[in-house]
User: Which sequence fits this backbone?
């Protein structure tokens, strides 16, 4: 296994030599769990090319921004929900935001959105527990284990069958519902509806089904994790929070809500989001790539089928690139005259080369909309204990493929009642 801990080497290998570094390790557990349809797991080849082409068609920068009203609507709901959030429900609120946003953009309005969301969440939970590298290694080393019924293994493994069942249901059901809505003229705009409005054969439809379900599985938790880290960061760094709010007030006026059209006038907010991704990249070890052929780099022999990981955590702590790296400092992404140094969404947190995250524009727009709405209406601060003393919080994160801040105490207060009234009125008018 090769672990890359430098941005330069990540670019040298995964980008400049991408033809050789773009497949994925073969994990037997993906097949057993029935999730080989998932774009993230696909080996390099024709099916992957078709998936990525479709992702590009439906989620590239220009298309992704055209869903701006949906982002705003969900961001407004999030703001109101956060007012009632507790230490233990913050994760749930942020996941509800990212999950329902992805679902709405992907499928439009489903008759039973709750059922889709709860089953998709269940699928993700089971998948996370069953497809870990150590479990994949166990089945590769001892293939006879596959002959045993899954319940023998207990724990999450006993749920492999349920995982397959959920995949089958969620692959077809929402897609077929949108198809029926198109036939009776009730479909709202969505990726699937846009896709179905053009002519496609069955193969094309299966790819769209896979892309649609992958979007939820790949995007829900990552986006929610960044949102939680954003809230933690602006609570711990109140000067950053005040400066971002002042920038919004100045650019859009005290009574209006910021929207994606205002983005170019809010460089500091973008710098904050880039810094959140750098400060604690949500997938600190990325997703494993694998080599298709032998290679030699800088005198080192790298064999075919080697697993190649990018240690994003190490990249984020590179003191040459990011002096005083553990400090949360959005200004490092700005020029001296306050402009963004990088204007494109090309952050290492989204990966490298031909497998770079194809949902990055969508994630970026969703995160921006939520962050802008939160800052425009709410202030997050440390909570106080029963004696009125501030409860200190250390920035601690859990471990896993996708990490989250550990639950932390906080308090929200409304800082702009006009905007709050405005978004409540918008929500009630629907
Ligand atoms: C802040 C949120 C997100 C982060 C940090 C993130 C990060 C990543 C990373 C690190 C990878 C692996 C890249 C590599 O192998 O080099 C990836 C792959 C992927 N992401 Fe995201 N992602 C996010 C949101 C999303 C969203 C919202 C979607 C879709 C709606 C999405 C869809 C995908 C897909 C399909 C892949 C697999 C691409 C492939 O294997 O070719 N992601 N993402």
Assistant:
């Amino acid at each position: 296994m090769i672990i890359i801990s430098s941005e330069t080497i990540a670019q040298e290998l995964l980008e400049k030599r991408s033809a050789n570094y773009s497949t994925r390790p073969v994990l037997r557990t993906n097949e057993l769990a029935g999730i080989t349809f998932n774009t993230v797991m696909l080996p390099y080849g024709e099916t992957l090319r078709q998936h990525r082409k479709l992702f590009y068609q439906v989620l590239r920068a220009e298309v992704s921004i055209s869903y701006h009203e949906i982002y705003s609507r969900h961001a407004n709901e999030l703001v109101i929900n956060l007012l009632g959030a507790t230490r233990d429900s913050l994760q749930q609120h942020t996941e509800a935001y990212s999950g329902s946003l992805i679902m709405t953009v992907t499928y439009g309005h489903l008759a039973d959105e709750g059922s889709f969301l709860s089953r998709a969440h269940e699928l993700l939970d089971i998948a996370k527990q069953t497809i870990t590298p150590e479990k994949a290694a166990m089945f590769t080393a001892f293939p006879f284990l596959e002959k045993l019924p899954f319940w023998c293994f207990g724990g999450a493994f006993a749920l492999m069958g349920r995982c397959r069942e959920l995949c089958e249901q969620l692959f077809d059901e929402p897609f077929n519902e949108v198809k029926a809505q198109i036939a009776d003229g009730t479909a709202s705009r969505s990726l699937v509806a846009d896709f179905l409005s053009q002519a496609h054969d069955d193969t094309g439809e299966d790819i769209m089904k896979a892309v649609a379900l992958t979007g939820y599985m790949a995007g829900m938790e990552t986006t929610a994790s960044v949102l939680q880290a954003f809230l933690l960061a602006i609570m711990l760094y109140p000067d950053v929070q005040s400066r971002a709010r002042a920038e919004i007030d100045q650019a859009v006026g005290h009574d209006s809500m910021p929207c994606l059209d205002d983005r170019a006038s809010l460089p500091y907010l973008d710098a904050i989001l880039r810094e959140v991704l750098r400060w604690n990249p949500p997938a600190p070890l990325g997703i494993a790539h694998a080599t298709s052929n032998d290679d030699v780099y800088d005198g080192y022999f790298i064999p075919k089928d080697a697993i190649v990981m990018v240690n994003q955590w190490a990249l984020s702590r590179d003191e040459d690139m990011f002096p005083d790296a553990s400090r949360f400092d959005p200004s490092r992404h700005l020029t001296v005259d306050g402009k963004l140094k990088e204007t494109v969404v090309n952050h290492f947190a989204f990966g490298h080369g031909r497998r770079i995250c194809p949902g990055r524009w969508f994630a970026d727009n969703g995160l921006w909309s939520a962050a802008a709405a939160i800052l425009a209406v709410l202030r997050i601060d440390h909570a106080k204990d029963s004696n009125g003393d501030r409860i200190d919080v250390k920035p601690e994160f859990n471990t896993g493929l996708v990490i989250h801040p550990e639950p932390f105490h906080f308090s929200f207060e409304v800082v702009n009642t006009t905007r709050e009234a405005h978004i409540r009125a918008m929500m009630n008018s629907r």
About this structure: The first strand starts at residue 2 and ends at 4. The chain is about 50% helix and 5% strand. The mean pLDDT is 92. The beta strands are 2-4, 289-290, 295-297, 300-302, 307-310, 378-381, 411-414.
